[in-house]
UniProtKB/TrEMBL annotation, chain A:
This is Exosome complex subunit Rrp46. It comes from Penicillium bovifimosum. GO terms for molecular function: RNA binding. One of its GO terms (cellular component) is nuclear exosome (RNase complex). Gene3D superfamilies: GHMP Kinase, N-terminal domain. InterPro entries: ExoRNase_PH_dom2_sf, PNPase/RNase_PH_dom_sf, RNase_PH. Keywords: Exosome, Nucleus, rRNA processing. The lineage of its organism: Eukaryota, Fungi, Dikarya, Ascomycota, Pezizomycotina. The keyword Isomerase does not apply. One of its GO terms (biological process) is nuclear mRNA surveillance. It comes from the Eukaryota. It is found in: Nucleus.
UniProtKB/TrEMBL annotation, chain B:
SUPFAM superfamilies: Eukaryotic type KH-domain (KH-domain type I), Nucleic acid-binding proteins. It is found in: Nucleus. GO terms for biological process: CUT catabolic process; exonucleolytic trimming to generate mature 3'-end of 5.8S rRNA from tricistronic rRNA transcript (SSU-rRNA, 5.8S rRNA, LSU-rRNA); nuclear polyadenylation-dependent rRNA catabolic process; poly(A)-dependent snoRNA 3'-end processing; TRAMP-dependent tRNA surveillance pathway; U4 snRNA 3'-end processing. Keywords: Exosome, RNA-binding. Residues 205-268 form the K Homology domain. Pfam families: KH_6, Rrp40_N, RRP40_S1. One of its GO terms (molecular function) is RNA binding. GO terms for cellular component: cytoplasmic exosome (RNase complex); nuclear exosome (RNase complex). It comes from the Eukaryota. Its main location: nucleus. This is Exosome complex RNA-binding protein 1/RRP40/RRP4.
Automatic annotation (TrEMBL), chain C:
Belongs to the RNase PH family. It comes from Penicillium bovifimosum. Residues 54-253 form the Exoribonuclease phosphorolytic domain. GO terms for molecular function: mRNA 3'-UTR AU-rich region binding. This is Ribosomal RNA-processing protein 43.
Length: 245, 311, 386
């Protein structure tokens, strides 16, 4: 599995490159914050930081779909950022996510397939920029096929063929931070996918036989993946400190 | 002769991580909260919302525990009154200083410089007005103000006439409040009225850009006692350069927290330019390649040989 | 004298204030005070007098715009959305990729091998609607529909994201059948005798064996324009209901390919026009979650784990409000939206989303689905009455 790369860019305060191995989306995220947002001073909240998200598609200009997904990301990330820490009130945290690789999005395409990659890239960029956060999270995409099988991270073509698509973001404390589901399904199916999402993100072995298939036990949890990426980067940045110990 | 300009020992700018003195826990606070158990071997990396492992904290209960940025204390309301937990808000490596009774988080170092009071910075004069020099300390930010008279012994008549592009080594005096606040610099110590630690205009020499993390490392390394021969902060590049260039007359160096290093070797006569460039290259390479102590020595030898400074 | 004494000593200002002022000064405390039930056995009542899972009165009116092929006005409380559907022709000769995209689909062996014929047809037409952009929704917020909207500004992020939500929902629900939008042409069999009588051959759309293959000459493109006349919260539900009502109202004129003029002709006879046959009736219900503790973000408290949070359900600190009005939307961050359809009495979820917080968990979502399916019954009645 390709590990995400943190702090790749020099200019922004924090950056991360995240490539989803299954869907092939490659997201480059950059975060600047806290920065002054001069033009919008009246729109700023006086007591906390304003989180702005920009999504840039690789081949076209951003359209209505990007506005929509930006809104979702803003509401998820804005809840996680501790915007009242020192230096943040009245300022902005600007998150720019460029879709650097993967299938092109057509007009009216569902943005669900790319949403987990965008969330991961945004989170890692914010960690890299040392933006104070109340918790971390990880996200996963699931497709339910015609036969009722739950497929993790379906490819864009498989996602089109599936009966329903689900995206879950689970916080490091097990909260359901985000759910986006579409297609045709009933609540029991959703609950099964939700359980599966919890086990994929948190890495807890699921006792339910239905939801553990297709994946080897060796595959690490997504929380673990995020943690490893951060640890690797910190250990390499502070290699000189570790040597002296 | 090697002379290394050192900023003075200062509680705010030189300490490991800008300890925030406002967060002080009462003595003995962690005694009842945290249980003692075995020691951790590798330094722990914390992610936001991770709890600080209780057994890692210093147990000296005579002084309050100091928390660095990236850590915060949270209360956990429970049936038995409220309990306290230390959690991280940023990702970083936990660093415990038992002597100073401090806990802090080493976060990602390569960040934009945000002016903090008492930091030493290298500023470039952009233009001057009646009362102030307008200086650039970081690109694409409003200019910082340096008073025309905030130099050692400066009066209306004796003040330095700095032109556009000249460099000064200054201290951040205030950063203001709220959005659009102005950063003010000074070149004298408020207590003594003297230019301590080499503050003032930097004439000659050359300025190199390094990362802010590297600048902080250089400052910490240079503030360590001279007799300490072990590599501090894993940096041997400066002492190695000092040893090898001693024959040429040594060099002077000033480090600004805004990621700028000023190097001057004017004593080295005809080799001055070469030596300056060699030092700059060594520092930048060490920074960019994240070199270990062993590689730093190799680099110094290689660079000096390439520039034909040392046979 | 007496009058001057009274003006000199005015009544001391009352320390109590009318509810409307309280609502403006302390909006969070005001709503919280309303929601906190006086005793544990009484249900919570919102500031607007509704129960927590009660929707506003909804009225639907269709066919209000005479120049559109279909139109509807939906009013949910004070939120009003107008939707007009206009059909325009798209000639296949104008689609640059038409010849290319058609060829593989005909040769596609899966179409013939697939046992479920209807399903494969579904997928086929979904592809055409999306690939050729046969549905073009556009939502605009009219000037003055809500305070803070300045005239002449480019479409706000809200309007753009609502447009996308509607388009995305139209695609995922497969609401419109591509077959309703196709204009077929059966080329006459030049060998047969009918060739001499083209007028009849064109009108009669029967399968002729042995003749040249039937081909699509044009598509109807539906331009779905939604305008929010007045926005008092929950714009999406109103906009989607108006789209649904307008599409149900849409009548497309009878159109055919005239081989002599090499153009499409439409009949002006209203009786010949046909309605769209929509797939199902997906109905959206939006919710928001109101947190009891206004200063939760300020408190340095440990955020409880999801499981601890579940255990502490007894001490209610949140209220999930159905169909939030503008006042309630301003006080909440966490949103949920459930779109359900019913088939033979069984509830099918078409879309479910929640974001902006961590208070709504799976148990809550289960309840929301139940509320949404009740809402489906109510709104279906309203849609069918008009």
């Amino acid at each position: 599995m390709v590990s995400p790369i943190l702090s790749q860019l020099n200019r922004p305060d924090g950056s991360a490159a995240y490539k989803c191995p299954a869907t092939g989306y490659n997201i480059l995220g950059a975060v600047n914050g806290p920065v002054e947002l001069p033009a919008r001073r009246d729109a700023l909240k006086p007591e906390e930081a304003t989180v702005e998200v920009f999504v840039k598609p690789g081949t076209t200009t951003a359209g209505v779909a990007e506005r929509y997904v930006e809104g979702i990301l803003r509401s998820v990330l804005g809840k996680v950022v501790l915007g009242r820490e020192k230096g943040f009130p009245r300022r902005g945290v600007i998150i720019t996510l460029a879709i650097a690789g993967g299938e092109n999005m057509d007009r009216g395409d569902s943005y669900l397939t790319i949403l987990p990659s965008l969330l991961h890239a945004a989170l890692l960029s914010m960690i890299s920029a040392s933006v104070p956060l109340s918790m971390t999270f990880s996200a996963a995409l699931f497709g339910v096929t015609k036969t009722g099988d739950i497929v993790r991270d379906p490819s864009p073509t498989a996602a089109k063929a599936s009966v329903s698509l689900h995206v879950f973001a689970i916080s490091s404390k097990g909260h359901l931070l985000l759910n986006e589901s579409e297609g045709r399904f009933d609540f029991d199916t959703w609950e099964l996918v939700h359980q599966r999402a919890l086990s994929v993100c948190q890495g807890t072995a699921s006792a339910d036989g239905d939801v553990t298939m297709g994946e080897g036990a060796a595959s690490a949890s997504l929380h673990g993946l995020i943690r490893e990426a951060v640890e690797d980067q910190i250990y390499s940045d502070y290699a000189y400190k570790l040597d002296s110990i | 002769m090697q002379s290394v300009t050192r900023p003075p020992q200062n509680n705010h700018s030189d300490t490991a991580l800008n300890l925030d003195p406002t967060i002080l826990l009462p003595p003995g606070y962690y005694q009842h909260t945290y249980m003692q158990s075995g020691n951790m071997s590798a330094p722990a990396v914390l992610l936001p919302s991770d709890e600080v492992p209780r057994d890692n904290l210093p147990t000296d209960n005579s002084n309050p525990l100091r928390l660095g940025p990236g850590l915060r204390i949270l209360s956990q309301p429970s049936s038995k009154g409220s309990d306290h937990v230390l959690t991280a808000t940023q990702a970083g490596m936990l660093s415990i200083d038992a002597k100073r009774n401090a806990a802090s988080l080493l976060t990602f170092p390569n960040r934009r410089y945000i002016p903090t009071v008492n930091d030493f910075v290298i500023a470039q004069i952009h233009h001057s007005s009646a009362d102030f020099f307008h200086c650039v300390i970081t690109p694409h930010t409003p200019h910082a103000l340096l008073g025309q008279l905030s130099f050692e012994g400066a009066s209306k008549k004796t003040r330095p006439m700095l032109k556009q592009g000249e460099m000064v080594y200054a201290r951040v005096q205030s950063v203001g409040v709220g959005a659009g606040a102005e950063v003010e610099l000074t070149c004298v110590s408020a207590a003594t009225g003297k230019a301590e630690g080499g503050m003032g205009p930097l004439s000659g020499g050359m300025v190199f850009d390094v990362s802010t993390g590297m600048a902080a490392r250089l400052i910490r390394a240079s503030s360590a006692p001279v007799e300490n021969t072990d590599p501090i902060e894993g940096l041997v590049v400066l002492s190695e350069l000092g040893r090898k260039l001693e024959s040429l007359g040594g060099f002077e160096i000033a480090v600004g927290r805004n990621g700028k290093v000023w190097v001057d070797c004017s004593d080295a006569a005809e080799g001055a330019v070469k030596a300056t460039i060699a030092i700059g290259r060594c520092l930048q390479e060490t920074d960019q390649q994240n070199l270990h102590a062993h590689d730093q020595k190799k680099l110094v030898t290689k660079v000096l040989r390439e520039l034909k400074l040392v046979s | 004298m007496a009058s001057s004494a009274t003006t000199g000593n005015p009544m001391p200002p009352s320390l109590s204030m009318p509810p409307s002022q309280f609502a403006r000064l302390q909006p969070h405390a005001y709503l919280r005070a309303h929601l906190s039930p006086p005793s544990s056995d009484q249900p919570s009542v919102r500031a607007n007098g509704r129960a927590t899972s009660q929707f506003r009165v909804t009225s639907v009116n269709t066919g209000s715009l005479t120049h559109a092929n279909g139109s509807a006005v939906v009013r949910i409380g004070d939120t009003t959305a107008v939707c007009g559907v206009r059909a325009e022709l798209l000639h296949t000769s104008d689609i640059s990729s038409w010849g290319v995209s058609q060829a593989p689909s005909k040769q596609n062996p899966t179409n013939t091998n697939e046992a479920k014929d209807s399903k494969s047809e579904d997928e086929d037409d979904q592809g055409q609607i999306q690939d050729l952009n046969l549905l073009v929704p556009n939502l605009s917020l009219s000037t003055g529909c809500a305070p803070g909207l300045t005239p002449g500004a480019p479409p706000s992020a809200l309007a753009q994201s609502l447009s996308h939500q509607i388009l995305s929902l139209l695609h995922t629900t497969n609401l419109v059948r591509a077959d309703d939008l196709r204009i077929w042409y059966q080329p006459p069999n030049f060998d047969s005798e009918e060739f001499h009588n083209p007028g009849e051959g064109m009108e009669v759309d029967t399968e002729q064996s042995g003749g040249p293959e039937r081909e699509i000459k044009a598509f109807w493109v539906l331009y779905i324009d939604i305008m929010i006349l007045s926005m008092a919260g929950n714009a999406f539900d109103a906009a989607w209901a108006s789209v649904l009502a307008a599409l149900r109202d849409t009548k497309l004129p009878n159109a055919w390919w005239d081989d002599d003029n090499e153009t499409i002709l439409c009949s002006d006879d209203f009786a010949e026009a046909h309605r769209l046959t929509l797939r199902g009736l997906p109905i959206a219900s939006s919710f928001c979650c109101f947190e009891g503790d206004a200063a939760a973000g300020w408190r340095a408290n440990v955020i409880p784990d999801a499981e601890e949070q579940k255990k502490k359900k007894g001490s209610q600190q949140k209220w999930i409000l159905a169909d939030p009005d503008g006042y309630e939307e301003g006080l909440t961050q966490e949103r949920a939206c459930v779109v359900v359809d019913k088939e033979n009495g069984k509830t099918i979820i078409v879309k479910m989303e929640k974001h902006g917080g961590w208070n709504v968990d799976s148990d809550d979502l289960r309840k929301l689905v139940d509320v949404s399916s009740q809402r489906w019954d109510d709104l279906k009645q309203a849609l069918e009455q008009c």
